[in-house]
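Pasting as-is:
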Amino acid sequence: MEGLDCETRALAMHNVHLRRYGRVIVDDVNLEIGRGEKWILFGPNGIGKSSLISMMSTRAFPTSGDIDVLGRRLGKVDVFSYRHLIGLSSAELSRAFPPFEDPLDVVVTALSATTGRWKDTYTSDEYARARRLMEDFGIAYLAGKQFGRLSEGGADTHTDLSCAHGPIRTAHSRRADNRTRSRRARDHDSRVVVAA
């Protein structure tokens, strides 16, 4: 597959296959996404969108084939060393947070690419960054509430929070773009934004 070099490529999938319980989920996917490009993955239920998104965001591994994310080969490098650079918004990610989690902690955990604060500690500066990001998304009023009690309905609250869970250092600059995509993609499985 001819394409972009690793300096200009955010994501590359070469001959990617995924099988679960003997069933083909993803078959021979080849894709390159350049740094700064924005893509939305959509289609009918059951065609492997969520599985592709999970692999693109380093949360799942292919059965065969190669995936390079931000110049790092999936399976060859500790994903936690760079997962914080990858923004992900999906209903599945929203379900990964403990229901009692404070939405402020949902956002601040983007710094360590975790879902839930658990035993992690963060500085007052890190919390200030998370609060500013929540303000940018128009959801600062959610701080102090319980994530599991927020509506998944018309207010797009979970979607906005999971958008905010992307790369905390750059997500505020994509606020309007993410909110527009949140509304358009609400009824679809997932999307991924790979930060440049």
